[in-house]
Amino acid sequence: MGCSVVSELLEGYDLDRLTIATLASHSSLQIAHGAKKEGFSTLLVVTEDRVGFYGQFKHLVDYFIVVRRWSDLCSREVVEELRSRNSVFVPHGSFVEYVGMDCATGLSVPIFGLRSLFPIEADQHAKMELLRSAEIPTPTTYSLDSEIDGLAIVKLPGAKGGRGYFIASSRQEIAERLRALVDRGLVSDVSKVIIQEYLVGVTAYFHYFYSPVLERLEITGADIRYESDVDSLRRIPIEKLKEIGVEPTFTVVGNIPVVLRESLLPAVYSYGEKFVNKTKEVLPPGVVGPFCLEGVVDRDANIKIFEFSGRIVAGTNLYVNGSPYTYLYWDEPMSVGRRIAREIRLAVEKNRLSSVIT
Ligand SMILES: Nc1ncnc2c1ncn2[C@@H]1O[C@H](COP(=O)(O)OP(=O)(O)O)[C@@H](O)[C@H]1O
Ligand SMILES: [Mg+2]
Fold first, then answer.
1. Dist. CA 161 → ligand 2 center (Å)
2. Domains along the chain?
3. Which terminus of the chain, N or C, has less C-beta within 10 A?
4. Structure confidence by residue, pLDDT tens digits, 75-108
5. Best of 200, 306, 308, 309 to mutate for ligand 1, by most ligand atoms within 8 A of CB?
6. Quick check: 211 and 290 in contact, CB under 8 A?
């Protein structure tokens, strides 16, 4: 989105009275909490069934907009109300999934972050291609007819949270299993399937924040996804699961904090820099604010990245009062939610709000 569109989005806005708005889900309480700390008004768009839960947090949320469906976010009434409160909308990990791509990319409210990244995030092939073109190490991608060297993880399109992914060791096995899934109607478009080298090592999810205002990249934390059933395999032999016909899934249940070995940090940082620079080049103005690289660290401390998120990830909820890294940058409790609000505040002070919204 070019500058002219950004200025249209901000038309009629009172920049001294901004409201930070998001959907009541994912990391919204952290975002609201951080916005309050930085002196902003806050607004949550919430569905009826969640009013009871989110209503407890009136000290964090100034305004609620209750909707029947998430996609009502893009209705004229909701957009008007958001605009009348000078809202800057923060897209979190559930945003595109809940409101749909057209609403997410077309929302007539300033968004903190890079809208043009949404469609790329939604396309597994485009996503991996962006990482590769940034020269970030990634697992090998196989095509349906290439021989598999070692193990491969097969990712089905639209399989939410790793449910339905499977691990295989040969081209024949993959072909057979995909055929069975197509026959059962569980996969419609085999060309959308991703076949990737299965990385042996431990998973780690690196959180970053790119500040256009300070022109600097910060590491804000790291987490481990706690995934059922794969993370239970130390409790039960996989053969026993196989006996009863259970294929372990990668369904996210929660997030576990991790502090990285300090000697890994320079490499982790350089991957983040590559990501920032590549997005600046191919999707100007480039990534804004929080993003996450998801990777596996092997026994020789090599790190490969198997996916990214261009928005705030739920793993940051671990650090509502700041992480070991944000404390080093800021010397005060600084969650990613607060960091977003701080960036917006700094941008307003320097008359540069248009450089953090799209
Ligand atoms: N190449 C890989 N090697 C090893 N494990 C992987 C690989 N790709 C994904 N995983 C595992 O599968 C999980 C889900 O995969 P991911 O690509 O992140 O899909 P999504 O988050 O969209 O469900 C990851 O969190 C990780 O545990
Ligand atoms: Mg993932």
1. 7
2. 3-112+351-355 (3.40.50.20), 124-136+200-332 (3.30.470.20), 141-197 (3.30.1490)
3. N
4. 999 999 999 999 999 999 999 999 999 999 999 9
5. 306
6. no
